[in-house]
Write a structure and sequence with these properties.
By secondary structure, this protein is an all-alpha fold. The protein has a domain of 199 residues: Hypothetical protein af1432. α7 packs parallel to α9 and α10 packs across α13. The longest helix has 21 residues. The protein is globular and about 50 Å long. It comes from Thioalkalivibrio sulfidiphilus (strain HL-EbGR7). Keywords: Hydrolase. This is Metal dependent phosphohydrolase.
Length: 291
Amino acid sequence: MSSVSDKRQEIQDLLKDLSALVSPPEIIIRLRQDMESPKSTAESLAKIVMQDPNLSARILHMANSAMYGLNHRIETVSRAISIIGQRALYHLALAVSATKTFSKLPSELVNIAVFWRHSVFTALIARNLAQRCHVLHPERLFVGGLLHDIGSLVLYHRYPDILRDSLLAARGNEEVLAQQERELIGFDHAEVGGALMEMWGLPESLQQAVAFHHRPGATANNMEVAIVHLADTLANRTDQGSFSEFGAFASMPHPGVWKTLGLDEDITEDLWRDVNMQFMETLHVILPQAK
């Protein structure tokens, strides 16, 4: 088995080989640079977004969706920024751009429709949990939930022959998949996803939330990791949100996760109901070709 440093280098080499496919698009780099500037304004961000009409339309659609539940229609990107905030707009742009970028990594091993349904369902649960936990900028947890399994697309694209049998045997159980990935290639899809988040310049808390979502006890950054882990677990308990093509299964969170978040498991039904109200619309905004 590789050491931690060896694994990190192996993952970076893997991503370097695929950099043409998985590098962040120019518009995301420009948005991040603008946000880091002391001169950043809603208008300067809007000008960048509006250079991509498709991105603008999808962000406006999402800002007007059930995900935000506003009682008046937002007509312009600059207005969306003033209502939902600069960081929320950046994270929505990031979500839309990332799904477009990573959809360039199709694999014969992955039912891509099921993959993105699970990803969007997990993202909505993560955002809901972040709001309930009063986490600052809950949209970043939406991004974490949306991209938590993105490393799977990289692994199945690069190692289809090595991982085919384990994927079939696991029947969508992600804990089993992650363990077998570590045994077969030395690292798992969560670690690859965390490295991708680093490549995209996302905050370390989000990198860890993705990298440790199958091992929430392995890092001191408990809140964000616990949110993505629990969101993933609860999504897998539903037919609409399961990673498995065979539907819902009894996915269980790691001990202590509910306590870490200060929440009671009794909220699960209410949480699922909230997410179901937003799911199909959000799925079609994030991935218009989804069915």
